[in-house]
Structures are given as C-alpha cells and as structure tokens.
User: What shape does this take?
Amino acid sequence: MKSMQPNTRRRALVTAVTLAPLAGLPSAVSAQALVSSMKVEDFFRNPVLSGARLSPDGRLVAGTRITAKGRANIVVVDVATRKVKIITDFTDGDVGRLGWVNNTRLFFSISDRQRGADQLGATGLFAIDADASGFVTLAERAFMTEGGKLLPVGSTVHSRVVENGELTDDIRVVAYSYQAKGKSSSTMYRVNTRTGRFSPMTVGGPGNAQQWLIDSKGVPRCCVSYTDETFTVHFRAAEDAPWTAIYSYRDDDTAEAIKPQSIAPDGRIYVVANNGNDTSGLYAFDPKTRKLDPTPVFAVKGFDADDIDLLWDRSEGKLLGISYEAIEPGTYWIDEERAALQATVDKALPETVNAIQVGGAGDDRVVLISSSSDRDPGRYYLYQVKQDKFQGLGATRPWVKVPEMRPTTFFRYAARDGMQIPAQLTMPAGDGKPPLIVLHYGGPWVRPIHMHWDPVVQFLASRGYAVFMPAPRASTGFGDKLFRAGWKQWGLAMQDDVTDGVRLLIQQGKVDPKRVCIAGASYGGYLTMMGLAKEPELFRCGINWVGVTDPNFMFTVTWTDFNRYGGPDTGRRRLIGDPEKDAEQFKQTSPLQRAAEIKQPVLMGYGALDVRVPLINGEKMRDALKGHNKNVEWVVYPDEAHGWRREANNVDFWTRVERFLAKNLA
Assistant: This one.
C-alpha cells in the first residue's frame, strides 16, 4: 500500500500546522465600532443556493435554489450552454441533500425550512432525471413528532445513501430504526431508482448495526454494531463468507477506538484511531492480523482526524484524496493531477477555502468549486480546464456584505494548570477595547469551534462585540488528553478554562474588562448559568438558550431522548459524575441550586418540544431566579426543539439578544 502513502514533501505540508499564538491576535478595536448596515434577518436567512453537485461526466451541475413561495427546489445547469432549468416544484417542502445516481439521474430528500421542529424526522427519498422526467418516490416522508407526540417506538425515522460511483440506476441506502433503551439497528438495501424496488443486502448480518461499509464492488464487507455501550467491528472476507467480530471498544474510550471509514482494494480497512498518540489519524487496519499499520496514511498535528472523508476513484480502485478539518477545512490530494488542479484553483481564489469536484476526463475535465471562508458564507464557480477559464455560478447568500464581515483567529492558550485550550476570537471593526461575548454552542463531547462563516458570530461582531469561543477540556477534535481531562469536570476545571481565557484577553488589553457577557446553547447554556454563579465579578450578564441548568437533570428527567433511547447511563456517570456518589459535587456545580447567587441580567430561551434539554430546565431556573432577580427575560418557542429552525424564530431571538446586550453592556 505504499502508493497510498503521501509523499514526504506533501505530508509535511499537512502535518506541520502552525498555530497562531495569542500574541498574534488582531489588534484591539473601538467600543464605538460602526454597526453593520445588515439587518438582523440578513444574518439568519436561509441560503438561496446550496448543495451544488457536479455530474460524473462533468456536463451538468445540480443544486438547490429558492424558487416560488420561498421553497428550495432543484436547479440543473448545463455546463456547455449555461442553460438553467428548475426540475422540481415543491411548495410544501424544501429539497435537502441531493446527489447523482449516474450522469443523468439524481436522488434527493425533502426537509421543511419554514417549520420549527414540531414535525421533523425521516426526510423521504426521491429520484428524478435531470430533464425533470422520471420522478419516483423511493421512501415516503415521515415525522418523529405529530402534534407534539412522538411516533411509536421502533419506527424507521432515518435513511442514508451510500455513494460508491457505480453508474447504474441503482443506489445503496442504509435505513435506520430506533427503539427504546439504546436499541437501534440498520439495514442496507440496493434500490433501483426507476422501479423503486428495494433489495436487502445485509440479511444475516450482525444485529444492532450502526454502520455498513462496501468494497470497491459494492458488496457490504464491514459493519459496526453497538450494544451495551460497546462498539464492535465485524468483517467478512467475501460476499458469501461469514461475519466475524474483529474488534471491540467502549463508546467513550477514544484511546482504544478504531472507527472504520472505507475498505481498500486489498481488503484492509481504513480507520480513524489514536494508535498510541494523543490525536487520531487515518490508519490501515488488517482484519486478518487485527492490527493497525504503525504509520498513519494521514494525520494533522494537533487535531483529531474525526471529520474526514475518503475520496475514491472506485473504477480504478484508487484513493484520490482525503478531506479533513484542522484549523480550517481542506483536502489532501494523493492524486497528483487533482493536487495540481487544487493548486490552480487556490491560486485564483487565495482568500477562501476551495473544495473541488472534478468531472469528465482529459482536456474535457470540469471543476466545480465551492468557495467559502470565515468571512464569506460561500459561492460556486466552474473551472474548465481546457479553456483555463473560471466562471461564477452564484453566491449562497448574495446579500451578505463580505467586506463588512470580520476575520476569525484560531489560537491556543494555557489554562491555570497548563492545559492547552483551543479557541477562536473574532474582533469587531474599529479601535479601542470592545465589549466581549463569550460563546459556546454545546456538547460538551464534540468539537465546538470551526473556522467557517458563522451567522451568530458575524451578527455579534457587526454590532461591535468581540466574540471569544473556547474549546474547554472535554471537547473532542483536539486530542484524547483534552477530552479525558474534562471527565467529571462540569462547573469545575471545564468552567475555569473559559474563565482563564477571558482573563487572558483582559490582561492583554484586547477587551473591556467591565463589559463581558457569557452566552451559549445546550451545554453552553449550562456554562453560561454556572459562569454567572461562579464568576459574578467577571460576567456582567448571560444569555442561555436550550441550556442544561442542573447536572441531575441529565439523569432524572426521563423523557430526554438519551434517557428514552440511549440505553444505560453508565457512560454519563463516567463523563459527568454519579448523582448519588457525587451528590455534593453536583450541588456545587448546579446553577439551579446556586440560583440565589445569580443577580446579573439573564436572557433565557427554550423550545417547548425539546427532548434533548427539556423545557423543565429553563422553567425551574426561571422560577428559582424570579424571587430575587428582576432582570430575567424569558421566551419559549412552541414549535421548536433543541435550537431554532424557523427564520422567524431566529430573527425574534437574536433581535432580543441585540436589545439585551445594548441595555446591559452599555
């Protein structure tokens, strides 16, 4: 497999990531920075153009565009003639994900951007020809809730298409079914997109299957199952060979985990694993010896290889490249031809991250470019190789005034115990020391920061606020050491990491120490309320939406999705703590039980249909505050769940935030 190893020169470009030191942050700016000319709704409108995909032969581009009644429908562009044709006409839903079945046929799903979360679930599956003929419903739309009531346990609520480059009328679909107490399963089907016929491909496979991988011939050969908080990897040598369990690991054991990604032509499995290192990389795993290669196929220093995608030419059995996320997204091309095309595109578009899709062959190659950055929400271009010609296809959000958007800087800082904490900072325009918003979206066991255009960050920066986004311990994406250091540290070291970052910014004169507000959603909402209680002199106000307010609720509120469907709670007890054995710690780290200490102004927003962090979290916190804190603003969105989907709800909430901050950070 030496041909699949990057050469030394290009590997160095990937692994030698330079981390910007704190001293390299943008210069301090004015508290009187000019307010953007963009309105609140301009930041939270849905994109008018998205999801563009190039046909395998490079002759057509398909994507979604807002059409009649504000709905997203499929638009097809002929690359040669530039003729545009809208091929669907949905008025009660929006086309979601789409992809090419072959050179002339598409599959797609349906969502509903104009609803909240009251009727979200299976998005259906459909197929249509690029000339608008041959429409077929492959799977009907279904809903996880109907009038606020969950569908019966055991209903199939999700499906995923597995693309393998086979240019027939068939696709492979994985359908998932969820039951109570951690039980779920999936089956892979071969689906003919013209007849709608489903043929099961994994009969007799392992039970409780969560993931299936196919080989270069489209045969399911690898499966990952999940039972009793343990993942098990299964493999079979051929289509008629028996399935064999080849590896198992506990679901929170990142050090020992191997996460299958793809099957190589020689039968080995590409997996994400740590292999004795702090951060994970992509390795080849031999199912016969059950061992990992000692050298990674791909790794980025300082970052886990969690969010990667292997890009194949299945017809030749050749791994072309690997898309990944480090400081920002990128693609590492093993294929020299595509590496050269990427270099040409990046030279022409040097200020953006440019993801390329290549269609056609030889001099007739066409490149579809998706170009975006922390300041630019994105736009599409076509590059015709033979003519050496670039042409724009359109912007995803053409109303966004890119020159007014602010750059984001990634850096790491030392917490009080020396732990290196990843973070991002976005500074508003102007001079002086601006007020600071500390922002955390949630998790905590996810990567919480990403270098892309963020409507919330840009909205806050446009109003003159600096935005600080830390990734405190327990976050993933930055190594096993950071993740494990957060076990049982809610409200303790995890909280101190955030405080230490804020104090460092103040010490360096970047922000106004008297005007700091903390904000966040989900776990970030917990971080907000705990920060107000623990650091009353530091945080002047707080904004909590859909936030946890007591760690006990993670165990006692039985109607959460993870309590109903997540199985045993032993994993949560390892990560958060034991509500009985750690009762005193839970008391000290409960914003609800420390509500009397919270006297700062608070804005809280919740979704009435939230089953991840149910409404009781907010109601109990509101009631505990109202006796002594007269500056509590409360809003409930009856049609939303764990976050806001509807544009109207987003505009309403962030308009409230704008007023709240103007009043309390003046």
Remarks:
- The longest strand covers residues 170-178.
- The first helix runs from residue 8 to 15.
- Residues 1-33, 145-158 have pLDDT under 50 and may be disordered.
